[in-house]
Amino acid sequence: MKKLILSTLLLLAPITHAAEPTSALRSVRVTADVAANNSTATALDLVFVYDKVAATALRKNGPEWFAQKAALVGSLGTQIDVVSLQVPPGTVIEQVALPARARRAAAVLCFVNFIDPAGQAVADLTRFRRVEIRLLESGVTYTGLK
Fold first, then answer.
1. How far apart (Å, rounded) are the C-alpha atoms in residues 59 and 3?
2. Are the CB atoms for 89 and 35 separated by under 8 Å?
3. Does the pLDDT of residue 137 top 50, yes or no?
4. Average pLDDT value for the chain
5. SS (H, E, C) the chain
6. CB proximity list for 136: less than 8 A, separation 6 or greater
7. Closest Cα to residue 27, out of 46, 54, 51?
8. CB atoms within 10 A of CB 14
9. Domains annotated on the chain, with CATH
10. Nearest to 133 by CA among 26, 24, 30
11. 125-134 pLDDT per residue, tens
């Protein structure tokens, strides 16, 4: 009986180890300047990816992500969580609510549906503990603290 219990514990050990946090992200703040995105509201998605293979499939820019979002969310199911924000110019979001399992994410990506191509690149926020996303007139800045 003791051998069976020990064997069971040894089998569970790798599962417990695999559930350790991989994302450092704990806090996200978003600010939008008064003229942000040419004075229009900006769609912003934080995508928490729990599978490394799925993370490589999501290396798109903002417009590609938003065009394919419904299909990607449907096909990836529980492999991702999406926090969607609609940010009007002149807005400050002090603390974005993160998913309960955010610390287990293999990758945290930020997609912004920006008019100007300078603001359309995907940002990898995985290694930062705190991030401020600032929406400007024709671009986006990310300030991260490890």
1. 46
2. yes
3. yes
4. 85
5. CHHHHHHHHHHHHHHHHHCCCCCCCCEEEEEECCCHHHHCCEEEEEEEECCHHHHHHCCCCHHHHHHHHHHHHHHHHHHEEEEEEEECCCCEECCCCCCCCHHHCCEEEEEEECCCHHHCCCEECCCCCEEEEEECCCCEEEEEEC
6. 33, 35, 36, 119
7. 46
8. 9
9. 22-145 (2.60.40.4150)
10. 30
11. 999 999 999 9
The pLDDT tens digits of the residues spanning 88-122 come to: 999 999 999 999 999 999 999 999 998 888 778 89
Mean pLDDT (whole number) for 17-40 = 85
- What CA–CA distance (Å, rounded) separates 24 from 125? 9
Contact at 8 Å (CB) between 94 and 132? Answer: no
For tokens 């992200």, name the residue.
25
